[in-house]
Specification:
By secondary structure, the protein is α+β, with helices and mostly antiparallel strands. The chain is built from nine helices and 19 strands. The longest helix is centred in the first third of the chain and has 21 residues. It binds zinc ion.
Length: 377
């Protein structure tokens, strides 16, 4: 069996449900150490992070990924044991094989080949966390802080998130929308429904305010992003009794926004809309991530060429989907792309990856190592 499949299987056999790494970083680390990397484990809280670097001067290419996986769901719903990697009809089954242990294996095997070809040249790093699928507070974001302090800014970053739709490399992510959460609290005065003059109903007060928020046209988006959207996700008010005006109402909403906006600008616009009513309210804000976009340049050009060389087509460039650890790494100011296996079964039962795709992914990564660490430059 080929190297990349073997390594993927070894990783999938480790039950590394967030935030547990379950020894996966040790497996990857020992391979990288043998390839001449210097390892540094950066544990924060209950999260294991691995930083590995091979410094040979010139531009630094960083591979980034996660060893943690989402829970399996009911094991009985699986055709195979989720932590016993099993090959059926050309597919490898097991939790994490597509998201994203297959990518990690492809990165490591591509790197091993490159290092054997070029023992003296090419700077490469790995940032591997076990907290991507969870709260993401002690993972990539903490390692990025350390890199910033050390002024260690990679030129290029490749994240192995499963970006592809039908065939490996048919779609890459070149940016992500920002995500802003607001928790709006309106305070009224609780009272008897028969005596509204003695009460203040926060549900009634909220209705015009919420109508304005959901009707607002925030922007038109731009070439790379759709317009900003606001969605209300939760509303809670009321005591359960039909004769009581509640004293408080809580509304959760989320905005997905493009590079046209910033989270601070949106907060200001929302406050301006809410202030139109003389209502006692407050909003707690959480920014899950600012938007980012990798402009056309070296990295995207080389990714197009690498996919073309291996697959015979060029990838679609997309900024869709949810957030990823890319939001933290992009803040370093490097060119960044997400390129990984087909995502059709991720987070589902019977997660699987086509065996042939693992080999192709490793080949694509190898092309990128060769071209981006351009040895003629
Ligand atoms: Zn993932």
């Amino acid at each position: 069996m080929d190297e990349v499949t073997e390594l993927t299987k070894a990783l999938v056999a480790l039950p590394s449900v967030t935030p547990n790494d379950a020894g996966a970083q040790r497996v990857l680390g020992s391979r990288l150490e043998s390839a001449g990397f210097t390892l540094e484990s950066m544990r924060h809280g209950e999260v294991d992070n691995l930083w590995a670097i091979r410094d040979r001067g010139g531009p630094l290419l960083m591979f980034a990924g996660h060893t943690d996986v989402v829970p399996t769901g009911a094991p009985a719903d699986w055709k195979t044991d989720p932590f016993v990697p099993t090959i059926v009809d050309g597919f490898l089954y097991g939790r994490g094989c597509a998201d994203m242990k297959g990518s990690l294996a492809a990165m490591v095997t591509a790197t091993e080949t490159f290092v054997a070809e070029q023992p003296e040249r090419g700077s490469i790093a790995f940032l591997i966390t076990s907290d991507e699928e969870g709260p993401a507070l002690n993972g990539t974001v903490r390692v990025v802080e350390t890199l910033k302090q050390r002024e260690l800014i990679p030129e290029y970053c490749i994240i192995g998130e499963p970006s592809s739709e039908r065939q490996v490399g048919d779609l890459i992510r070149v940016g992500r929308r920002g995500s802003l959460n607001g928790r709006l609290k309106l305070r009224g005065i609780q009272g008897h429904v028969a005596y509204p003059d003695l009460a203040e109903n926060p549900i009634h007060a909220a209705l015009p305010m919420l109508t304005r928020l959901i009707s607002e046209r925030w922007d038109e988006g731009n070439h790379d992003f759709p317009p900003t959207s606001l969605q209300i996700s939760n509303i809670a008010a009321g005591t359960g009794a039909s004769n009581v005006i509640p004293g408080e109402l809580v509304v959760d909403f989320n905005l997905r926004f493009s590079t046209v906006q910033t989270s601070d600008g949106l907060k200001r616009q929302i406050h301006a809309l809410c202030d139109q009513d003389k209502v006692n309210y407050e909003i707690d804000w959480t920014v899950s991530g600012e938007p980012f976009l990798t402009p056309h340049g070296n990295l995207l050009e080389m990714v197009d060429r690498a996919v073309q060389a291996v697959q015979g087509f060029t990838p679609q460039h997309s900024t869709g989907g949810g957030t990823s650890d890319g939001r933290f790494i992009a803040a370093l100011g490097c060119q960044l792309v997400e390129l990984g296996p087909v995502n059709a079964t991720i987070h589902q039962v019977n997660e699987c990856v086509r065996i042939a795709d693992l080999g192709k992914l490793s080949e694509i990564y190898l092309h990128l190592l060769r071209s981006l660490l351009s040895l003629d430059a």
